[in-house]
Amino acid sequence: MTIASWNSRFETGVEIIDAQHRALFAALNQLTEAFRSGTSGEHVKAGLAALLTYAAEHFQTEEAFMRERGYPDLAVHAAEHVRLVERAHDLETQFREGRPVAMELTIFLADLLAQHIDEFDTAMVRFLKNEPPIVTVKRL
Ligand SMILES: [Fe+2]
């Protein structure tokens, strides 16, 4: 079951970031499948571990890019990474405690990831590529 499909909207053009984003979506989809099909706890445990490993690796990559280039919104962006990791840990806790809300949480996490890429990663990549930020004009 696919809960979050990769689409070109998420493409940043930075190869390593795109590859890692794809891996995160794939890990989330695999995890949802493990929950849905009621396969053994071992599958879910392995899926959660993979997701957390990919996430940690990916966030380190992005934060290293931002630090290296003196990105002014590094602190805000890194705080969002912490929030995403906390949500993934919530998921792990709920699973360990045997609560039945796990699948909804993976969907929530996939939405959060999509939103993070749209909002935070797009701005970061524009900066890394020396492109001007997209200014959104709020209409009254
Ligand atoms: Fe990010």
Q: If you had to describe this structure to a student in words, what would you say it looks like?
A:
- With 140 residues, this protein is an all-alpha fold.
- The protein has one domain (14-128): Up-down Bundle (Four Helix Bundle (Hemerythrin (Met), subunit A)), CATH 1.20.120.50.
- The protein contains four helices and no strands.
- It has helices at residues 15-36, 41-69, 74-96, 102-128.
- Helix 1 runs antiparallel to helix 4 (102-128).
- The radius of gyration is 16 Å and the shape is elongated.
- The N and C termini lie far apart (41 Å).
- Fe (ii) ion binds next to helix 3 and helix 4.
Query: Roughly how many Å apart are the termini?
Result: 41 Å
Query: Which range best describes the helical content: under 10%, 10-25%, 25-40%, 40-55%, 55-70% or over 70%?
Result: over 70%
CATH H-level superfamily: Hemerythrin-like
What would you report as the Rg, rounded to the nearest angstrom? Answer: 16 Å
- Average pLDDT confidence is 83
Note the total helix count: 4
Order of helices and strands: HHHH
CATH architecture: Up-down Bundle
Q: What ligand species are in this complex? A: fe (ii) ion
The CATH class is identified as Mainly Alpha
- Regions with pLDDT < 50 over 5+ consecutive residues? none
Shape: elongated
Number of strands: 0
What percentage of amino acids are in beta strands?
Answer: under 5%
CATH topology: Four Helix Bundle (Hemerythrin (Met), subunit A)
